[in-house]
Amino acid sequence: MSDVLLIVVLGLIVAAATGTWLTGQVAALCFHGAWPPVSIGQSLAVASRLPGHLRDPRQAWPVSVRHELPGPAGFLVAGMTTLVIITGIAVLLIRNGLRRRSQQGFASRAEIRAVLSEKAVIARGPVVRPGLGKQAR
Predict the structure, then answer these.
(1) CB contact at 8 A, 82 and 26
(2) Total-model pTM
(3) Measured between alpha carbons, how far is 74 from 60 in angstroms, rounded to an integer?
(4) How far apart are CA 14 and CA 90, in angstroms?
(5) How far is Cα 16 from Cα 48, in angstroms, rounded to an integer?
(6) Which runs of consecutive H residues, i.e. helices, occur in the chain?
(7) How confident is the model at residue 136 (pLDDT cuts 50, 70, 90)?
(8) How far apart, in whole angstroms, are the C-alpha atoms of residue 54 and residue 90?
(9) Banded pLDDT at 6 (limits 50, 70, 90)
(10) What span, in angstroms and rounded, lies between the C-alpha atoms of 71 and 39?
């Protein structure tokens, strides 16, 4: 149980740091046309300072890039945009993964194609109706 808890906590930390970094980068790109030189490693510190600067999120970022970042409304728009994009990508990946997963007791698409293709059906014709092969000759 403690291993699962540790993995969940680490996953949340990575998600918060990456989400913070991506939101700041998208905000700067959309509102100032530049990708600020902030690494994902620095975003963990930004994410930890962010709760104290919710009225002006750019104050949580390094001083060297604050002039490239928008105000609170810009961060809100960038955050929502980032959230929509990440959610869309996650939905597509999950749907694609579920589509490829076979359900126990059911044939996969490849198995159905292998047995029910035109070529497979014609090849099985003499087995299903042995007399049919003699009449065709």
Answers:
(1) yes
(2) 0.64
(3) 15
(4) 16
(5) 9
(6) 2-32, 40-49, 72-100, 109-116, 118-128, 130-136
(7) low
(8) 27
(9) very high
(10) 21
